[in-house]
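Q: I'm writing up a methods section and want to include an example of the input and output format. Could you take the sequence below and give the corresponding predicted structure tokens, formatted cleanly so I can copy it straight into the document?
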Amino acid sequence: MANSRSRDWGLAAAAVALFLDQASKALLLYGFHFKEMTPGSAVPVLPFFNLVMVWNPGVSYGLFPAHGPLGTALLALFSIGAVIGLGWWLWSSRHVSLAVGLGLVIGGAVGNLIDRLIYGRVADFFHFYFRGYDWYVFNIADCAITFGVFALLYDALLRHNHEPVARNQSPGASNAE
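A: Here is the clean output for your methods example:
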């Protein structure tokens, strides 16, 4: 069945995103002892990339910072609600691109939720910069959420234009990827 195939791809994307996020955080926080570093301390890696210890009290890329335990609890509840809603959407998805996008967002959201529940904030490490321009410090979960949103936009805006016309298909049926 096409629905279960799409769902399997989405669940796999969520699991991979969550695993990579939590593994990278464990390695950096405990393996390389970033947890003991002064926030903002940087380790130069490449001429355009540093590893930086930043504790983010907000959601992806520092948006909507939480102030105090109530703010942290509200962000955690919002994340749980989003994961439940996206999970329901994933369960009924019929296209692989949609399911993978949803899975990436779910995996990233759960990864950051775990940090928020354990530390009260999210650990971010990756900082790219070039010729005076720099990007937010982020983590693998933020990347998964961003790429997941791109996949959702692809599915919503472009997939239908590239979908082949099925012959001999009943009027209510849909194409599966």
